[in-house]
């Protein structure tokens, strides 16, 4: 149902406010049919030894028709146990040094982390502890301890459940790669023995069922099933605690410690943080105040949904700030609220009641990490007036609530499905909230990519308390006629690996990063250009809604694209997602040949009649009615194929709009008529955002004022590649 504009803004606002106040009075109701995991957990943090002792009861449901003979668990923290873990294997292609090099130079034994199952038992049943064996399905590295397998004495029947009682101990590493401690700051992620995902036949393209439980690799993230977490966290006095879900209680214990209870349904992980230094600020995202009636009308029309479906929810947002970052409080909240607003309007309401955001200490190696209803942002540098770095990180990590949190793709096997979607969506939110991007900045008359320059990490910066070099105010914004952001990285790495690939099997860290972030974002931009903005908006919303609390694969996304658009886009995905070719279309030549009229011998009235070529040329030169045969040749210089439009302009002002399937290596357009062709441009609407070289897309017979712009773009490419080579993109 479409809502016409005449429904009236006041009515929509009233509707919005009505739903809004109703929702705020509710507590979270589960939206999934049956939880696969139900964890009831208790954990105690000893900050002095950076150790957590814990226990949980887990009810695990076999949602398939398979009979399951074993169980798999992740012990992620064993990645940090010793140099034999698969995680610690170095990237031979890492540029300069990487964060692991820094981490390894930290002296002492406390930096190492580990995790063990002290006891695992079926509730009222067998002790499984002696049955634990280590598994290394990805690389056969016997030294890796991040996955365990337990062969069950009795298999789990189809649709059956198993109840387990587990004691565990977790030693947190010095903060590194998404988890750990830094002084009195604790970011506790991947911290308990976590059951793997059992996938049934048909799920994510599987033909037979089986466990999906990968080892912990340097560049891969996580994958887990949906369910509930009911967690008691016991910490020393004075700790400020934040966690996945909402705080149900906080009780002081006789020994002075405090036990907090957090609870959340419909999530696939639980992370938490503690530090006595946090400044805790809570504000409510009141959607009735944040979203205007005309915005609801507009998006309900674009999406073809009733206005009532556009209702968002109020969310209690807690920000845990570092001391000294009070000045960032408003910027953080504005960014989070923009995320809640635009993601909610576009993809559907954020369904949870709470969101907790951590502002991490500098150099803690924990910034920019997402967990369900909880994420770590980060602001290390001086936010200049054109620089939206803190907003970018915040909106990016918020975006993972949708692409990772609610739509639970397998981050091991298809990292682009969350990072690419988040990168694509973040640019849209930032543009909607803060205006068109200013991705290139002028400094001393030279253009520089804003992000790479201002994001230069300064871990060794000597002045305590100074966030970064205050360069921001010295830059001025440059708006280019072309979209160029991220292209330097794309051009270097699109040919290195296919985009859809296991996260640990990209050639290098940079290939993983570019093929999971920048390249899919550019590919999705291109898809949007081909489908049209409104169709793409419907694709994204449908995909989010259909796959919430489930595990889609790339093929599932393509199916949504084809279904919503009514087109078969398989070929597009084959070229740009499953392949590693670059697209590059160019206008190769324009040739205008005068049509002189008859010259030579012609059969006329049964006789052979001769016409002189010289006379024809002379007559033509005197004529005021000159005609031409014009030929335009367009080439496919890249290996990737895509249909393209071509605009051919004539000196009389007419324009021929042509279309080419873009498949063979070249094509030719020929015109006989009174006007010469003066210029031609392939892909005039810039639909093919991933075109490797825009400067060859147009050709003009005469020198053209666009020359200066072309030179400028070449310079930008060059400079971006230079920065990229220096490792400033990450
Ligand atoms: Zn991300």
Molecular structure report:
- There is one protein chain.
- The chain contains 16 helices and 34 strands.
- The longest helix has 20 residues, at 706-725.
- Strand 15 (246-252) and strand 16 (258-267) form a beta hairpin.
- It is elongated.
- The strands form nine sheets. It has a seven-stranded mixed beta sheet with strand order 4-7-2-1-13-16-15, with no helix packed on it. A five-stranded mixed beta sheet has the order 18-19-20-22-21.
- It has 730 residues and is an alpha+beta fold.
- The protein binds zinc ion (ZN).
- Residues 396, 400, 419, 422 line the site of zinc ion (ZN).
Please give a quick description of this structure.
This protein has 730 residues and is an alpha+beta fold. It is elongated and about 115 Å long. Bound molecules: zinc ion (ZN).
What ions, cofactors and ligands are bound?
zinc ion
- Rg over alpha carbons: 30 Å
Quaternary structure state of the chains depicted: single chain
Strands side by side in the biggest sheet: 4-7-2-1-13-16-15
Extended strand count: 34
* Total helical elements: 16
Strand content: 25-35%
**Helix content, binned percent:** 25-40%
Instruction: Give the N-terminus to C-terminus distance in angstroms.
Output: 44 Å
**Class by SSE composition:** alpha+beta
Outline type: elongated
Poorly predicted ranges (pLDDT <50, ≥5 residues)?
1-26, 450-475, 479-483, 726-730
Mean pLDDT: 87
Instruction: Report the biggest beta sheet as strand number plus sense, adding barrel if it closes.
Output: 7 strands, mixed
């Amino acid at each position: 149902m479409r809502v016409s504009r005449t429904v009236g803004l006041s009515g929509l606002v009233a509707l919005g406010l009505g739903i809004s106040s109703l929702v705020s009075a509710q507590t979270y109701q589960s939206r999934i049919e049956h939880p696969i995991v139900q964890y009831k957990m208790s954990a105690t943090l000893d900050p002095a030894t950076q150790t957590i002792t814990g226990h949980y009861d887990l009810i695990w449901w076999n949602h398939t028709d398979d009979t399951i003979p074993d169980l798999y668990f992740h012990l992620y923290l064993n990645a940090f146990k010793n140099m034999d873990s698969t995680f610690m294997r170095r990237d031979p292609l890492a540029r300069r040094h990487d964060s692991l090099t820094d981490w390894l130079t930290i002296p002492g034994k406390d930096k190492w982390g580990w995790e063990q199952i002290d006891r695992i038992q079926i509730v009222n049943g067998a002790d499984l502890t002696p049955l634990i064996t280590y598994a290394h399905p990805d690389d056969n590295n016997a030294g890796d301890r991040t996955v365990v397998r337990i062969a069950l004495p009795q298999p789990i029947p189809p649709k059956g459940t198993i109840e387990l009682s587990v004691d565990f101990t977790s030693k947190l590493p010095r903060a590194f790669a998404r988890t750990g401690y830094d002084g009195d700051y604790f970011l506790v992620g991947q911290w308990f023995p976590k059951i793997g995902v059992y996938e049934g036949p048909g799920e994510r393209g599987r033909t037979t069922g089986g466990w999906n439980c990968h080892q912990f690799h340097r560049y891969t993230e996580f994958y887990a099933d949906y369910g509930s977490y009911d967690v008691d966290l016991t910490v020393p006095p004075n700790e400020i605690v934040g966690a996945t879900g909402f705080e149900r209680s906080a009780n002081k214990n006789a020994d002075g410690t405090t036990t907090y209870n957090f609870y959340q349904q419909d999530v696939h992980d639980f992370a938490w943080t503690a530090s006595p230094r946090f400044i805790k600020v809570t504000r409510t995202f009141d959607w009735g105040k944040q979203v205007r009636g005309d915005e609801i009308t507009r998006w309900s029309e674009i999406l073809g949904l009733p206005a009532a479906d556009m209702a968002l929810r109020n969310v209690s947002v807690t920000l845990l700030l570092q001391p000294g970052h009070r000045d960032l409080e408003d910027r953080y909240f504005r960014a989070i609220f923009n995320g809640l607003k635009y993601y909610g309007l576009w993809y559907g309401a954020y369904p949870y009641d709470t969101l907790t955001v951590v502002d991490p200490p500098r150099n803690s190696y924990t910034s920019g990490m997402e967990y369900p209803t909880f994420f770590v942002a980060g602001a290390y540098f001086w936010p200049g007036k054109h620089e939206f770095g803190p907003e970018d990180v915040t909106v990016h990590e918020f975006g993972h609530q949708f692409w990772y949190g609610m739509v639970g793709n397998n981050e091991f096997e298809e990292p682009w499905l969350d990072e690419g979607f988040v990168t694509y969506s973040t640019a849209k939110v930032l543009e909607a909230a803060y205006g068109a991007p200013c991705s290139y900045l002028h400094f001393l008359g030279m253009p520089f990519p804003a992000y790479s320059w201002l994001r230069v990490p300064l871990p060794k910066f000597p002045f305590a308390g100074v966030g970064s070099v205050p360069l921001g105010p010295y830059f001025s914004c440059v708006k280019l006629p072309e979209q160029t952001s991220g292209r330097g990285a794309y051009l270097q790495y699109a040919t290195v690996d296919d985009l859809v690939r296991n996260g640990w099997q990209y050639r290098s860290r940079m290939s993983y990063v570019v093929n999971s972030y920048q390249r899919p974002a550019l590919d999705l931009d291109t898809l949007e250009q081909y489908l049209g903005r409104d169709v793409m908006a419907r694709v994204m919303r449908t995909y989010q809604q259909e796959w919430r609390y489930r595990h889609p694969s790339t093929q599932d996304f393509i199916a949504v694209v084809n279904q919503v658009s009514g087109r078969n886009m398989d070929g597009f995905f084959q070229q740009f997602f499953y392949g590693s070719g670059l697209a590059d279309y160019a206008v190769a030549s324009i040739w205008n040949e005068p049509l002189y009229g008859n010259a030579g011998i012609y059969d006329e009235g049964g006789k052979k009649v001769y016409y002189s070529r010289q006379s024809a040329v002379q007559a033509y030169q005197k004529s005021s009615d000159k005609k031409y045969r014009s030929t335009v040749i367009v080439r496919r210089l890249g290996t990737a194929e895509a249909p393209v439009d071509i605009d051919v302009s004539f000196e009389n002002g007419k324009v021929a709009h042509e279309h080419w399937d873009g498949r063979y290596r070249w094509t030719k357009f020929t015109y006989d008529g009174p006007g010469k062709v003066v210029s031609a441009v392939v892909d005039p609407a810039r639909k093919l955002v991933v075109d490797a070289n825009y400067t060859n897309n147009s050709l003009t017979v005469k020198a053209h004022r666009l020359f200066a712009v072309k030179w400028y773009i070449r310079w930008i490419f060059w400079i971006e590649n230079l920065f990229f080579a220096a490792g400033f993109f990450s």
